[in-house]
Amino acid sequence: MALAQTRQAADILAPVFPDRTVEIVPLRTRGDRVVGPLTNLGGKGLFTAELELGLREGRLDLAVHSAKDLPADMADDLTIAAVLPRADARDALVSRSDPLEELPRGAKVGTSSLRRAALLKAARPDLDISPLRGNVDTRIQKVLGDSATFDATVLAMAGLQRGGWLAEVGNHVYPLDVDHFPPAAGQGTLVIQSRAADAELLAALQPICHSETLHALQAERSVLRGLAATCHSCLAVYVYPESGPWRARAMAARADGSDMLRVEAKGPTARSAADTLLENLLVNGAKERLELSS
């Protein structure tokens, strides 16, 4: 998945640097290697640390990340140089035959995301939610393969599209409405990270930076910072434009998915909607719920 995303980013970068070759340098991060729950192994930084080290050491000029893998706080020597247009931000149920509301009682659904597990429990308390990690192909095979051990799993629509899986298993994919199943902050967004001191490089990338997506991402990350959210936080944050105002949605719960809080807000800009959302979250005890998740 990471390589497919990087290739897409490289295709966009190539015209920006017509006199230079855009070389892809594959790096296998610790997040790709570990098999246990991320919350027990260091969280989102597992997917970014090696890439950021490559930038600092000069082995890389740019790093491509899924925005939802970036910790809310970034070191001062690195920066988000460009944000690509957001793909489908929704999650989707990948199931042998049934959408979420029609899964049989006690169906086994795999996910290692606290957010997804909480939302699944809220929608269907009767389901058996069990840990499932691995790359997208591994998780799909656990549901649709000849030796399947799960009835369903939840994956990001953007990942299914970028990796070509949607074309292959689309008849088993059931998108989940953001009203009831809000995504993680940054979901569906690819960011290009660079050294903050590379002024010439930063200037060159400005034409490919998608302003609407950038505003949404900055707004979502501001909510993460305002709540001091970490990889241990059971949290969804989604800010998006509508005809007229921007809308913002969030969900916060304890790590076990209990005591769930859902909040919505609107505003004339992405940041104003996010600020109102954060205020409502704080007033209604979101931070206390998330602290119990740590």
Number of helices: 11
Strand content: 15-25%
| CATH topology (level 3) name of the largest domain | D-Maltodextrin-Binding Protein, domain 2
Report, as a whole number of angstroms, the end-to-end distance.
29 Å
Q: Give the structural class.
A: alpha+beta
| Corresponding CATH architecture of the largest domain | 3-Layer(aba) Sandwich
Number of domains: 3
Oligomerization category of the chains in this entry:
single chain
What is Rg? Answer: 19 Å
Say which CATH homologous superfamily of the largest domain is assigned.
Answer: Periplasmic binding protein-like II
> What is the global morphology?
globular
Listing every helix as H and every strand as E from the N terminus to the C terminus, the arrangement reads HHHEEEEHEHEHHEEHHEEEHH
Could you give the order of strands across the largest sheet?
5-4-6-3-7
User: What ranges have pLDDT less than 50 throughout 5 or more consecutive residues?
Assistant: none
Mean pLDDT value: 91
Look at the structure and give the CATH class of the largest domain: Alpha Beta
Helix amount: 25-40%
Describe the largest sheet.
5 strands, mixed
Secondary structure: number of strands: 11
List the helices and strands and how they pair.
Blueprint: H1 2-13, H2 30-33, H3 49-56, E1 63-66, E2 78-83, E3 91-95, E4 108-110, H4 114-123, E5 128-130, H5 136-144, E6 152-156, H6 157-162, H7 165-169, E7 173-175, E8 190-195, H8 199-205, H9 211-226, E9 234-241, E10 246-253, E11 261-267, H10 270-283, H11 286-291
Parallel strand pairs: 4-5, 4-6
Antiparallel strand pairs: 1-8, 2-8, 3-6, 3-7, 9-10, 10-11
Helix pairs in contact: 9-10
